[in-house]
Amino acid sequence: MTSLQLQYFLTVAKYLNFSKAAEHHFTTQPSISRQIALLEKELGFELFTRTKHSVQLTPAGKFIHDEFSLLYQKAAAVLEKARQTSLGIDGKLNIGYLQETNIDIFLPLIKRFTQNYPRIDVSFEGYGFKDLREKLINRALDVAFILNFEVENAPEIEQYAVFRSAGHVVVSVSHPLAGRDALSMEDFKDESFIVASETPSGMDWVLSQCLSSGFYPKKVIKSATSESIIMYVESGFGVAVMDSSTRFYTNPKFRFIEIKGETAKTSVNAAWRKDNTNPSVALFHNLIIKSLEENSAG
């Protein structure tokens, strides 16, 4: 059985007329009849009963028609889905983000993407520093919203800043210095600094802010996540350095004191592997570029 014979058979079964089937396929009636005859010979039984005035499916022909119609429709749907996937119209996009990030920073981008491409299945999940970085590099994620210094030395990663900020010293409102005006980094030279142990580049960035201000922390306390870091700060163990992308930025229990200088600047970036062949990533990339251009023009 060839695909051409199957198409001819299904069309004749649809019209119950060999001439109309020939017109449908832009061929001749004898050509249709010949292919159906060859198919019946191969199968060993008749598919149609023919009289001078009518064509009807045999019981076996009806069974084959019903079954192959469903398969043909499914095959057509599979091919169409594959076509749409190749164009990025249909597919999947796995997005990760640092779980302590204020999601309002990137949620508008995700909403816009899903509105533009409603047939792309988008999933997103929050992770800690280490998991987010590794999942992006190891291809478990298509896109990550990540702090710029996390993958700045990874040549396989492309990234664009979607939110720019600066480092801030974070203190509890009960800290003795919390009520003072015009504080600077130097005012905390005698403090213990709590840093994230899961991000070596983040630790280096924090310590570089201290060194730029002329001191090294008298004590460095390592903690795994921003959640635990902020608990240390609230409990009075020391201070931390975070940027304003964190969801703790508006928490009234803490004061964020901005660190001045170019080295203190940071950003939340949309990042993906340059060799990711998922068409949905290319569409997301284009959306990021368009959004940045619009923001620049505005």
From TrEMBL:
KW Transcription regulation (keyword) present: yes
Pfam families recorded: HTH_1 (PF00126), LysR_substrate (PF03466)
Entries under InterPro entries matching the protein: LysR_HTH_N (IPR000847), LysR_subst-bd (IPR005119), WH-like_DNA-bd_sf (IPR036388), WH_DNA-bd_sf (IPR036390)
Keywords: DNA-binding, Transcription, Transcription regulation
Residue ranges annotated for the HTH lysR-type domain, each copy included: 1-58
GO molecular function per UniProt: DNA binding; DNA-binding transcription factor activity
Superkingdom to which the source organism belongs: Bacteria
GO cellular component, as recorded: protein-DNA complex
Gene3D superfamilies: Periplasmic binding protein-like II, Winged helix-like DNA-binding domain superfamily/Winged helix DNA-binding domain
Coiled-coil features, chain-numbered ranges: none
Keyword Transcription regulation: yes
Family classification: Belongs to the LysR transcriptional regulatory family.
Protein name: DNA-binding transcriptional regulator, LysR family
